C-alpha cells in the first residue's frame, strides 16, 4: 500500500510515520509539505534518520493520483476541505485528521472553528472515524473524518450508555485535560515552556470547537438534541488526555450492571480497556499507544455516574486511530502496525 501524508513537518504526521514505518502492508510513504518542500524529513526530525529517508514534496492532485492509495491530511483546520472535493473524484482514499469534515453543517463549523469548510454535499460524504464504535461504516468509506482528541475520549466514555433510560442526557458535564502536544508543533505564547511549566489553565470555556462534534454523535444515538458542558484544560505534560464525565442517573443502578454493559459494548474492541473498580486510569497507562482506558463509578450519594477516560492525544486521539481506520478500510486486522504496548515509565 502506498501512503501519502499532508502536513509532513507536524506532530500528527510524524506520529503517523512512527507507526506506518512499522506497518506490514505499507510499501511506500510520500510526504507533502507546505513549508519544507525538498527537505528530507530526517533533517526536520533527526530521530527518523535511518528509519524514513524521504524528501518532502509539494502536494498536487496529480502526484497523489499517480502515487498514492491512501492520503492522510495532518493539517490544521480549513486546509483539507480545499483539496478533498477534487480527490473524491479519484480512487484515492482519504483520512482527514483535521476537523473539516466532522460536522454535517458548514454553518456550525464556521460558528465554532471561525473558519470555512466544505459544503453540506461534501460533508455528508464523510464517515466519522470513531473506529471502536463505527467499524462497519468505516470499512465502506472513501473519506474518513478522523475524530478530535477530546471527542474520541469523551464519546468512547459516553456512547455505551447515552441511550439508556437510567441516564439524564441533559445533565452531562465533561471535564477534559490535555498535554501540550495537543496544540501541535507550532509555537504560540500560551504553550511555550515558561508559560506552561508549573502551570495549568482552563481554556475555551463554553466555546470549545469539539463541543458540537461530541453533541452531534450523542444526539445521533439518542435521536434527540443534546447539549453538554465541556471544559478543556491544558496541563504541563507533553502527551495525554484525561476526560472525566459526570452524568445524573434517573434510576438506581449498580456499578456491576454498568460495568457489564461497558464490557459487553467493547468486548470485540482490542484497543478499549474497561478497567476494574480498583484500577483508575492514568495517562501513563496508554502513553504512546492506541489504547483508551475507561473506568466507571456509580456515586450512590449524589446519584451520578462518573466516567474516566484516558488516551494519548497523538495516538488514539489522532494518528493511531487514523491508522486503525486505514486498517478497517483495507480489511486488515485493525491492530496491524499499532500493537506497540504503552511506553512506561
Ligand atoms: N496534536 C494533537 O493531539 C491532535 C491534532 N489533531 C488535528 O490534526 C491536525 C494536525 O495537528 P498537528 O500535527 O498537531 O499540528 P501541527 O501544527 O504540528 O502540524 C500541522 C502541519 O500542517 C502544515 N500546515 C500548517 N499550516 C498549513 C496551511 N495553511 N496549509 C497547508 N499545510 C499547513 C504544516 O506542515 P508542512 O509545513 O510541513 O506542510 C504543519 O506542520 C490538526 O487539524 C489538528 O487539529 C487531531 C487530534 C489530536
Ligand atoms: C492543547 C490544545 O490546544 N489542544 C487542541 C486540540 C486540537 C485538536 O485535537 O485538533 P482537532 O480539532 O483536529 O481535534 C484544542 O484544544 O483545540
Automatic annotation (TrEMBL):
CDD domains: AGPR_1_C, AGPR_1_N. GO terms for cellular component: cytoplasm. The keyword Cytoplasm applies. It is an enzyme of class 1 (oxidoreductase). One of its GO terms (molecular function) is NADP+ binding. InterPro entries: AGPR, AGPR_AS, AGPR_dimerisation_dom, AGPR_type-1, NAD(P)-bd_dom_sf, Semialdehyde_DH_NAD-bd. Pathway: Amino-acid biosynthesis; L-arginine biosynthesis; N(2)-acetyl-L-ornithine from L-glutamate: step 3/4. It is found in: Cytoplasm. The active site is at 149. Catalyzes the NADPH-dependent reduction of N-acetyl-5-glutamyl phosphate to yield N-acetyl-L-glutamate 5-semialdehyde. NCBIfam families: argC. This is N-acetyl-gamma-glutamyl-phosphate reductase. It comes from Halolactibacillus alkaliphilus.
Amino acid at each position: 500500500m502506498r501512503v501519502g501524508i499532508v502536513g509532513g513537518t507536524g506532530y500528527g504526521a510524524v506520529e503517523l510515520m512512527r507507526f506506518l514505518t512499522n506497518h506490514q502492508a505499507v510499501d511506500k510513504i510520500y510526504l507533502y509539505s507546505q513549508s519544507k518542500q525538498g527537505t528530507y524529513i530526517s533533517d526536520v526530525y533527526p530521530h527518523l534518520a535511518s528509519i524514513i529517508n524521504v524528501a518532502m514534496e509539494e502536494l498536487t492532485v496529480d502526484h497523489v493520483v499517480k502515487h498514492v492509495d491512501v492520503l492522510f491530511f495532518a493539517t490544521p483546520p480549513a486546509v483539507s476541505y480545499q483539496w478533498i472535493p477534487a480527490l473524491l473524484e479519484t480512487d484515492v482514499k482519504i483520512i482527514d485528521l483535521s476537523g473539516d469534515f466532522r460536522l454535517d453543517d458548514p454553518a456550525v463549523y464556521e460558528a465554532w472553528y471561525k473558519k470555512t469548510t466544505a459544503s453540506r454535499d461534501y460533508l455528508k460524504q464523510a464517515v466519522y472515524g470513531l473506529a471502536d464504535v463505527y467499524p462497519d461504516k468505516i470499512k465502506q468509506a472513501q473519506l474518513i473524518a478522523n475524530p478530535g482528541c477530546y471527542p474520541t475520549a469523551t464519546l468512547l466514555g459516553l456512547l455505551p450508555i447515552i441511550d439508556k433510560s437510567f441516564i439524564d442526557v441533559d445533565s452531562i458535564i465533561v471535564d477534559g485535560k490535555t498535554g501540550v502536544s495537543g496544540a501541535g508543533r507550532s509555537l504560540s505564547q500560551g504553550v511555550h515552556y515558561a508559560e506552561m511549566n508549573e502551570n495549568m489553565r482552563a481554556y475555551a470555556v463554553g466555546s470549545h470547537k469539539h463541543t458540537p462534534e461530541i453533541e452531534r454523535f450523542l444526539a445521533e444515538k439518542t435521536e434527540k438534541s443534546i447539549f453538554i458542558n465541556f471544559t478543556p484544560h491544558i496541563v504541563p505534560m507533553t502527551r495525554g488526555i484525561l476526560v472525566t464525565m459526570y452524568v445524573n442517573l434517573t434510576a438506581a443502578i449498580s456499578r456491576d450492571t454498568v460495568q457489564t454493559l461497558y464490557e459487553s459494548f467493547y468486548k470485540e474492541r482490542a484497543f478499549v480497556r474497561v478497567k476494574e473498580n480498583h484500577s483508575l486510569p492514568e495517562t501513563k497507562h496508554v502513553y504512546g499507544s492506541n489504547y483508551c482506558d475507561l473506568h466507571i463509578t456509580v456515586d450512590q450519594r449524589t446519584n451520578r455516574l462518573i466516567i474516566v477516560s484516558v488516551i494519548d492525544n497523538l495516538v488514539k486521539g489522532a494518528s493511531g486511530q487514523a491508522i486503525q481506520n486505514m486498517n478497517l478500510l483495507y480489511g486488515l486486522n485493525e491492530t496491524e502496525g499499532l500493537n506497540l504496548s504503552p511506553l512506561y515509565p
